[in-house]
Specification:
Layout (H helix, E strand, L loop, with lengths): L1 H13 L1 H4 L12 H5 L8 H9 L1 H9 L7 H13 L1 H5 L2 H9 L2
Helix pairs in contact: 1-8, 4-6, 5-8
């Protein structure tokens, strides 16, 4: 649960514009400050869009217990892992659930 919260915090920090919409990856802003120092790119808006577009695929992935893997989800998982060591250590299911929590 804590590991998932760290991944959520990372995505929240990675997508400040998305954070305005309800809750983002972390569900709260707690821990986002420490995660924001881990962002490597000055511009992540392209990755933000990829992650947001993956919500439907993430829902299918979670609902099917990982059996349904859409192309948008795969792209989002790649983008998240390229930008963060925390995301690289998270499972696909943890990241998919985090995408849905946005």
């Amino acid at each position: 649960m804590i590991r998932l919260a760290v991944v959520f915090a990372f995505v929240l920090a990675m997508a400040p514009a998305v954070a305005v919409h309800a809750s983002s990856f972390a569900g709260t802003s707690a821990g986002a400050g420490s995660a924001s120092s881990g962002a490597t790119s000055g511009s992540t808006s392209g990755n933000d869009k990829v992650v947001l577009q993956a919500r439907e695929d993430a829902a299918g992935f979670v609902a099917s217990d990982g059996r349904i893997r859409g192309a948008r989800l795969e792209a989002a998982l790649r983008a998240l892992r390229e930008d963060s060591a925390q995301a690289r250590s998270a499972s696909d299911m943890e990241l998919a659930r985090a995408i849905l929590a946005r």
